[in-house]
Amino acid sequence: MFTISLCMIVKNEECIIERCLDSVQHLVDEINIIDTGSTDRTKDIVRSYTSRIFDFTWCDDFAKARNFSFQQATKDFILWLDADDVITTEHQRKFLQLKQSLYHPNVDAVSMDYYVTLDADGCVESSEKRFRLVKRDRNFQWQGAVREYLDVIGQLYHSDIAVTHLPRKIDIHRNINIYERLKKDGHPFSARETFHYANELKLHQRFLEAINHYTSFLDSTKGTADEHIEACLNLADCYQQLNDAKQATQAILQSLLYDRPRPETCCRIGHFFMEQMKNKEAIYWYSQALQQPIEQTMGTLKHAYSTWHPHFQLSLLYNRLRLFENAHQHNEEARKYKPKDQRILDNRTYLLTQLKK
């Protein structure tokens, strides 16, 4: 069985650090905490878990901080987490099974699902895959001052373990401030940095600037298919916010150039036809969303577009056609995913009334 060093960078996490460490301390063999300038009780709390606490002077560069954290590890593999991450009981069991069964000489990195956002009922809204467990002696390096990524190669293993993100608060200005400092300092943005800077501009409702950077990213032809598809869909959102429906539709269609139709793309095309009262065309595309395989990619997966959302839209569309049995069946499928959603419950009551007639 291989050994694991946990490496974390933290700052002022007194409210949540225990929750994270409690969920992982029995899974790892060493805990390394890199503090970037806490002024609260974070260090005092951490001392009850480990004596391996290291100071790092913050320099607006997440990759440098994470690489420093990896340098403190001494075990076979490195696990990285943030303070607002937890591993639930179910996935703790899966983690221990992996630790006991994985033949580690043949594996350089292990990916895990990252549940980025949860809905009000605790169901996963969006998730990503990230390489969470990496072999220490491969000396993999983090890249990027913000929205950093771990550059891994070799024998890669995709696990079914998940890490859940439970943020206490989100500083929406942090990332864009770092990007704009880099820009001011004359830092040449890579294609990936251009893409993520565009995402931050969109978040801050600077839609024209975001459009320019998404377009620059797409014109570069660099980046992954997942990033290109996400850029197209985000570009469509920006045009929609500027009331340019034609450009928004063209951006959605452009996403089809990079891979098979993703569920989100199918739903967006379905919505386009639904708004024009072209019900049969809309039904085709929402049905396609349900038939597309879930890709094992490193991109963001928005679960609604392959689960309850197309079912609910299909229910509304079949209701327009007065095919109430079909409408009821799809509404029931949507209800399996969202049993407390008031729209689905109200639609159910209405459809049952129609069926009785």
Summary tags:
14 helices; 47% helix; Spore Coat Polysaccharide Biosynthesis Protein SpsA, Chain A; Serine Threonine Protein Phosphatase 5, Tetratricopeptide repeat; 11 strands; 2 domains; 357 residues
N/C terminus separation: 65 Å
Give the name of the CATH superfamily of the largest domain: Tetratricopeptide repeat domain
Shape descriptor = globular
Structural class: alpha/beta
SSE string, helices as H and strands as E: EHEHEHEEHEEEEEHHHHHHHEHHH
Low-confidence stretches: none
Please summarize the sheet with the most strands. 9 strands, mixed
Q: Mean pLDDT, as a whole number? A: 96
Radius of gyration: 23 Å
Q: Beta-sheet strand percentage?
A: 15-25%
What's the total helix number?
Answer: 14
CATH class of the largest domain: Mainly Alpha
Number of domains: 2
CATH topology descriptor of the largest domain: Serine Threonine Protein Phosphatase 5, Tetratricopeptide repeat
According to DSSP, the number of beta strands is 11
Percent helix among the residues? 40-55%
CATH architecture assignment of the largest domain: Alpha Horseshoe
Write a structural description.
It is built from 14 helices and 11 strands. With 357 residues, the protein is α/β, with parallel strands linked by helices. The protein folds into 2 domains: 4-165, Spore Coat Polysaccharide Biosynthesis Protein SpsA, Chain A (Alpha-Beta Complex), CATH 3.90.550; 175-356, Serine Threonine Protein Phosphatase 5, Tetratricopeptide repeat (Alpha Horseshoe), CATH 1.25.40. It is globular. The mean pLDDT is 96.
